[in-house]
Amino acid sequence: MQKTREALRRPESKRDLNRALFDRIAGRYNLATRALSLGRDAAWKKELVEALPVEQPATCLDLASGTGDFAALLADRYPGARIVGLDLSSRMVALARKRLPGARFEFHCGDIGSMPFDDDFADLVTGGYALRNVPDLARALAEIHRVLKPGGSAFFLEFVQPPPGYRRAIHHAILHLWGGLVGLVLHFGPSTYRYIPESLVSYPAGDDLRKMFIESGFTIVNQRRHFFGMTERIELRKPHP
């Protein structure tokens, strides 16, 4: 895992690692997320979508869109909205397009840190496990701020990096052991999902993460923990000028 940890410290190698990993696991990704969350992943995503603004957005942008879980929920929540997804993995994008072929859906292959969208493109941004996986978090947050319209909201579901100490050690150990078991069962490779605790090593914790949100121009509206504090729902807003 030392090789993986080193790769995650550099934006270019982290991008390559993520692309290769998610291309490889795409076919069983939905099953894996259910297993890793002990069946709670679908409920967390549904709760996040239920917490979204009531007002009908013209365009919803889902980041790290995967196979289209959030896109499908957004379409149900906002029947008149255009749903746009972005994912680094071409295999994930292909699966999402097959699952949601309608004209109101668009799925693009690309990096959150360099998005192919105009300024003020989306009224609403969502992302499931997106922030921890971006090659360069500061750059990604700047891009999210750029493409989100003033007054728009961004909602994320993400793993939590606990503060240094025994809680972090226990948290990482649980993810390491459970991720290894899920990887062994689904992919015959225990290291597959041990990537998750490794990716948390360089992911900001607590106040450091909140500071990055604020420095990127966002207002923090809410952060709500799930699963004994291992995951959280993050709500940000881009203020009007």
Would you give an account of this structure?
This protein is globular. It has a 7-stranded mixed beta sheet with strand order 3-2-1-4-5-7-6, with helices on both faces. The protein has 10 helices and 7 strands. The chain is an alpha/beta fold and 241 residues long. It has helices at 2-8, 11-25, 29-36, 41-50, 69-77, 90-99, 137-147, 166-187, 195-200, 206-215; strands spanning 59-63, 82-87, 105-109, 122-128, 148-159, 219-226, 231-237. Helix 4 (41-50) packs parallel to helix 5.
Strand order of the largest sheet: 3-2-1-4-5-7-6
| Euclidean distance between termini CA atoms | 45 Å
Q: Helix/strand/pairing class, anyone? A: alpha/beta
At CATH's second level, what is the architecture?
A: 3-Layer(aba) Sandwich
What does the radius of gyration come to? 17 Å
What is the fourth-level CATH superfamily?
A: Vaccinia Virus protein VP39
CATH class, please? Alpha Beta
Helix fraction? Answer: 40-55%
The name CATH uses for the topology is Rossmann fold
Number of helices: 10
The backbone outline, from C-alpha atoms, is: globular
Oligomer: single chain
Strand content: 15-25%
Describe the largest sheet: 7 strands, mixed
What is the arithmetic mean of pLDDT? 89
Question: Count of DSSP E strands?
Answer: 7
Please specify the SSE layout and strand pairing.
Elements: H1 2-8, H2 11-25, H3 29-36, H4 41-50, E1 59-63, H5 69-77, E2 82-87, H6 90-99, E3 105-109, E4 122-128, H7 137-147, E5 148-159, H8 166-187, H9 195-200, H10 206-215, E6 219-226, E7 231-237
Parallel strand pairs: 1-2, 1-4, 2-3, 4-5
Antiparallel strand pairs: 5-7, 6-7
